[in-house]
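pinning this so it doesn't scroll away 📌
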Amino acid sequence: MKKENVLCVPVISLTDEFDIKAGYWPTNKDSINKLPFIFKARELAECDFSHKQLIAYALVFNERGELLHYQRCGSEKRLKGIWSAGIGGHTNDHDKGDTLYDTLTNGLLREFEEETGLKIKLDDIELLGMINEEQTEVGHCHTGVVFKITVNPENLLLDAEIGNPQWETPELLNLANFELWSGLAIKLTNCK
């Protein structure tokens, strides 16, 4: 596990602001910025269930409206080999901005460049909503903030963690083949 201080919000604040039992819900910058946040050592955050680590999670589309999906090949053993549609990761204290939303997008810009080799701008990001689940080990301590990014696939230099990349319209994907988070995030694409 990487040693870093990761972005966390109190679970009570999430439940006061959102119906997190819904699994996925559209939201906006203002609602996200109402949440108080702190940074905790990642090894402590992984076992502190009074807080959730907020993960900036991007769905990547091409100009034809097809979604990038792939098999996980990274260091996260809980997800290895599973089909995913998200790119992103932990936001840390080096990403801190003026607001929670700014902090999340700073983390997303950094993670996106690390995993795809592509530097994007804030104008390239569209907030879709949030996802939450309590069924998996990952879900017990993480909540996702989902963004949509549209790119030219020829410009992507995908990280080794992204195996067998493919493109397809979301409606044609069998969500049963995907990690739970990706399935929830993909459902957000129908909420706009």
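📌 and the second one:
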Amino acid sequence: MQVFFYGLFMDEDILSKNGVNPSNPRVGVLKDYTLKIGNRASLLPSKNDEAYGILMEVEDQEITGLYAEKSVADYIPEVVTVTTNSGDEINATCYNLPLEMLSGTNEQYAKSLHQLALRLNFPTNYLNKIKEFYS
């Protein structure tokens, strides 16, 4: 299945340590969504915004196992349309935390996500947006 990751799960090493072996990673953007970082990250609908992430192919049982873990068990899958750097529009599953469960702050998470997004060559304006969560 196609899965769109936008938080620290964009890191294939983290996925691998959690029993997920993704393939075909591609940078993608989800239009009309914005990144929010509380204790964890989530994407929320937001007209005219964009959220960057990595689109990957993942086995169904691996993704089910990943999101059964207690720290991410509240995330809900939703089908979204991701635009890749090559301009392809691909339907994918994206796991998001419901707005009412998004609370707190997590500067360390935001800093780690910023470093990962920098390594992935995300646009400067998006990197700056992540930085706002810990500056």
